[in-house]
């Protein structure tokens, strides 16, 4: 059995490398995700999500999407933000906006949290779809309004508000 993984191990895989190096890292992460150690800090979903990013950076869009979907379905603690944000980002970057919107709508129907709404807003902002980006910040604000005080993380709310402000500025709209 392998040694337990820490978040430092996961962080050490981040950064830009050659496509082959990204592919090799993805293979390592997939192998780690296939053998759960009871003392691992990162969850299976988090390992799979990181592998998905490496596959995307290696230029293997379809494999990245498949691994992100595996992460979304993995048992245990989910990756944050929801990996459907990553799927939408990869689809948008590969010129598949209709599929990306379908994935975003799927996430919307699950009553996503504030962090997920912020992430999806940033995905659409990066793709220069400011209408969808603003929509996702509005969905996030609705989640904030429906939450009780003990359910709110002020850092998450601040990030949402910062993202919303940036998007409104890009749209030429005044601050809220």
Molecular structure report:
There is one protein chain. Helix content is 67%, strand content 0%. It is mainly α and 176 residues long. The protein has two domains: 1-79, no CATH class; 80-176, Serine Threonine Protein Phosphatase 5, Tetratricopeptide repeat (Alpha Horseshoe), CATH 1.25.40. Helix 2 runs antiparallel to helix 3 (44-57) and helix 3 (44-57) runs antiparallel to helix 4. The termini are far apart.
The fraction of residues assigned to DSSP E strands is under 5%
Which series of helices and strands comes N to C? HHHHHHHHH
- What is the oligomer described by this structure? single chain
Structural class, from secondary structure content? mainly alpha
**N/C terminus separation:** 54 Å
| Helicity range | 55-70%
- Integer count of domains: 2
E-strand count: 0
Q: What's the Cα radius of gyration?
A: 17 Å
- Compute the average pLDDT: 96
> Which ranges are low-confidence, i.e. pLDDT below 50, for 5 or more consecutive residues?
none
Largest sheet: none
Please give the count of helices: 9
- The fold-level CATH name of the largest domain is Serine Threonine Protein Phosphatase 5, Tetratricopeptide repeat
Give me the CATH architecture of the largest domain, please.
Alpha Horseshoe
The outline comes out as globular
Pfam family, one: TPR_19
Protein name: Tetratricopeptide repeat-containing protein
Organism: Klenkia soli
